[in-house]
């Protein structure tokens, strides 16, 4: 990657937490995002080559708020048929505690990821870009709105309570999309 390459960021909303573990999807395949000037989707397999690198998990894309990383095993990433799945072992830091508190309340906006596109890693059809290869740099837990829909964020610590909140949040999001 050249020094002039710009890191792009995209957002999703699929998260679950279990104690100090946050998991979900940082990106979903074939979900179309309207990015204003163009539309974008991610093809299955787009992250495959990037998963061997050292990827960071951050809070709001802030490199000063590291939540985990693949090199240490505190961040696990894998592709499946749905998208880019992740699991973060949240640290006992202020940022980690904040993420847990916000996830328990259902206040997190979702997930985001920072990336570059390698040469030949995109295909255009009209105003729609399909990402076929992504150089993933980081994933981030975000407190704002995601660009990509179809994902969720939740804490798994209290399975029964969280499931109820998750269903209620999904209903609110579906209703909001209906009126948007």
TrEMBL record:
Pfam families tied to this protein: Peptidase_S78
InterPro entries: Peptidase_S78_dom, Prohead_protease
GO MF annotation: an example: peptidase activity
Superkingdom of origin: Bacteria
Domain Prohead serine protease: 20-158
Coiled coil feature spans: none
GO biological process: proteolysis
Keywords from the UniProt entry: Hydrolase, Protease, Viral release from host cell
Listed name of the protein: HK97 family phage prohead protease
């Amino acid at each position: 990657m050249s020094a002039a390459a710009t890191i792009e960021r995209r957002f999703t909303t699929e998260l679950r937490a279990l104690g100090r573990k946050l998991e979900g999807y940082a990106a979903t395949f074939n979900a179309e995002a309207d990015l204003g000037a163009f539309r974008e989707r991610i093809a299955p397999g787009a992250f495959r080559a990037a998963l061997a690198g050292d990827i960071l998990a951050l809070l709001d894309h802030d490199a000063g708020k590291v939540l985990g990383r693949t090199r240490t095993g505190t961040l696990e990433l894998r592709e499946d048929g749905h998208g880019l799945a992740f699991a973060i072992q949240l640290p006992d830091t202020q940022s980690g505690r904040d993420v847990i508190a916000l996830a328990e309340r259902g206040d997190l906006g979702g997930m985001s990821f920072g990336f570059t596109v390698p040469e030949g890693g995109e295909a255009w059809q009209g105003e729609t870009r399909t990402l076929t290869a992504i150089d993933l740099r980081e994933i981030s837990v975000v407190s704002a709105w995601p660009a990509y829909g179809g994902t969720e964020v939740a804490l798994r610590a209290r399975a029964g309570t969280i499931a109820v909140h998750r269903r209620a949040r999904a209903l609110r999001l579906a209703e909001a999309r209906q009126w948007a």
